[in-house]
Amino acid sequence: MTESQAVEIGTDSKVVVAMSGGVDSSVAAALLKEQGFDLVGISLQLWNYSWDTDNRFGTCCSLDDLGDARRVAERIGIPFYILNLEKEFREGVVDYFVDEYLKGRTPIPCTACNKKLKFDELMRKAEAYGYDYIATGHYASVVKDANGRYTVRRGRDASKDQSYFLFNLSQEQLSRLVFPLGDMEKKEVRGLAEKYRLNVAGKAESHEICFIPDNDYAKFIESEVDAALFRPGNIVNADGDVLGTHKGYPAYTIGQRKGLNLGGLPEPYYVTAIDTVSNEVVVGPKNDLFREEFTVSGVTWQLDHCEAFEAEAQIRYRHQPVACVVTPLPGERARIQLEHPQPAITPGQSAVFYNDDCIVGGGWIE
């Protein structure tokens, strides 16, 4: 892809802005209001935090965040509503998160939440309310290529780019999305929050998984499943030799080094595979983590693609993209051959293919 054009919408458009209570979505709302759009703010109630009397949650979508979003809406003068999607969140995100770990895979809850709630559910609600577009505070842009296909382009601020989480959106969804912050730096967004005198101008970033206190995902999974599914087992090397014991395979992920408690080895060992049938965690030296070819399933193509094409693949959120050849396969799958081997290519994560900073497609690592 060598030519693309940013998608612009008329100021007579009616827009629902998804307000998380953070600085990014708040500034997105303020910008759209200043530009004259017919705007309504909606926050999603996704998880019941009423038990959290110790205020351990400093993440998005908490009770404090809903209050912050309401105050921002009042400040900029737009209607504001809270949409309760706790049931949908439980089924589409939390259950998926637990099930993936039970399969020995490492899920991406933010991608599932974006697709199933922020865009699927919220878009349906917006349409029912008579609104045309959904706006969010993502650092990315929607562009259109010469063939009229919509795709997501990386955000200008490379350190905040969130395009990786948006690879699985349909053409219909992309045609109705607005990302006001795509061409902005984070420091600019902070400056605008101060200019608009928003109560969230100095609010800290949230990085934890929103439904897990203290980011202790292993403890959360253990509390969600039957004890028989989270039990001790052997840690073995590639030859099957027992090196130690683990506390339950769902507590581990490919590339993990900490928490293995393996002493007396000549070099650091990492998790290289998880065998859910034998309840074994396989470990090995760092060299065992590297692969140069893998497959993905559930592929979404945002742009037209040829039989095999050159691209750049990003295999996790903070991964530096690497040159590759992508070969589409039957059944919404693709084979990726990397120019240079990469470590910890992890089942359950997504591999996203870019050309000129625009998403061609992406899928789930098998």
Task: Describe the protein's architecture and organization.
There is one protein chain. The chain is of the alpha/beta class. It contains seven helices and 18 strands. It has helices at residues 23-34, 63-76, 86-102, 109-128, 171-174, 186-195, 217-224, and strands at residues 4-6, 14-18, 38-45, 80-84, 133-135, 140-145, 150-154, 177-178, 233-236, 242-246, 270-275, 280-284, 290-301, 309-314, 322-329, 333-343, 350-355, 358-365. The strands form four sheets. A six-stranded antiparallel beta barrel has the order 13-16-15-14-17-18. Helix 1 packs parallel to helix 2, helix 1 (23-34) crosses helix 6 and helix 3 packs antiparallel against helix 4. The radius of gyration is 22 Å and the shape is globular. 42% of the residues are buried.
Q: In a nutshell, what does this entry contain?
A:
The chain has 366 residues and is of the alpha/beta class.
Number of helices: 7
**What Rg do the Cα atoms give?**
22 Å
| CA distance, first residue to last residue | 27 Å
> What portion of residues belong to β-strands?
25-35%
The amount of helix comes to 10-25%
Rounded mean pLDDT score: 91
Low-pLDDT runs of 5+ residues are none
> How are strands sequenced across the largest beta sheet?
13-16-15-14-17-18
Structural class: alpha/beta
Structure keywords:
six-stranded antiparallel β-barrel; 366 residues; five-stranded parallel β-sheet; alpha/beta
